[in-house]
Amino acid sequence: MEKTVYLDNNATTRTAPEVKEAMDPFFCELYGNPSSMHAFGGKVATHLAKAREEVAAFLNCSPDEVIFTSCATESDNTAIRGAADFYGRSSKIVTTAVEHPAVLQPCRRLKAQGHEEVELPVDGVGQIDPERLREELKGTKNAVVSVMWANNETGTVFPIEKVAEICREAGATFHTDAVQVAGKIPVDVSKVPVDMLSMSGHKFHAPKGVGILYVRRGTKFRPFMLGGHQESGRRAGTENVPYIVGLAKACELARTGMAEESVKLTRLRDRLEAGILAACPNVRVNGDRAHRLPNTLNVSFEYIEGEAIAYHLSDLGICISTGSACASGSLDPSHVIRAMGVPFIAVHGSVRFSLSRYNTDADIDYALEKIPPVIRNLRELSPFGPDSDPTTFK
Ligand SMILES: *Cc1c(COP(=O)(O)O)cnc(C)c1O
Fold it and tell me: Which domain holds residue 117?
């Protein structure tokens, strides 16, 4: 395959060359253990501390509120299970129907273990109603709330400030999965009263296998990884120094470049959206266009399958994704698209385009050249269309 136009940046991103360069000395030269007594390890500890300061500057928090983890899945699990564990069996867990599995699965496990669990519904554009949360928290003690900052499939941004305020009034511990907002919209925990927040390096140009868990001072949780005293006893295991240094570099790049990048991302994404809508009939945009990440476009091509679209575009070097989980050979439509009540004829044809700083106008030109004929061909092969009986479409 010669050409690659990568439009799947909500799944993972290219590691920034600056990040790779910053990491390089920490493999063969500065390889000491930051916990060691000797100066050789101590030097590495200095770099680890500097990395923590950079992440803190990115989130606008104090360095001791930053815990490094192996991924956002670990951060999400630690926050949710750790906060619920601290309270014992008596807590109520409130989340949303459109969370990433890294949040939904631990919440459902807690339910199986005897906690009460509620998944807030979303409306047709994938938005939650914060007043529903307020209702759910009435009269609760020890509630744990996990609501994502922005959705990975549709790019819909939730009113997190409002959600955080409601949680604070109710005395609930509030965690947010902020993986998809990192480097795309500003995150300032001094302004938004979240208690815990998760991010993942590989979603904003650091490598895979390193994450952030922000924990506001005073927030109670029981650590998940037990062992040594690393991360002030909150996450055991020798720190992954090269990756943490890389993650800090990615935070610096995001902090300094985000304002300009988001203008570019919005422009390219809007070009892609307008081009698709102009060239293809029977297309609908999924998500809240008024509150949406600058890089994300989720569209349903009615009467055809998202998997088929992704497969054909892959042959042309274009990388996109569908929300479907190819579990046990069955193609289940995305739980996010289903929760939004997207009409039946459009559920299966949903695909996601997600951009990054490395995308260009030429990428969009290429995508807009290739997508319409692929859609036309698939529609010609499809037994379904605007005139067919929708109940037979599966
Ligand atoms: C990718 C993603 C995760 C998981 O992150 P990992 O670091 O790969 O574990 C969690 N939440 C959201 C919203 C994501 O997009």
Answer: 17-254
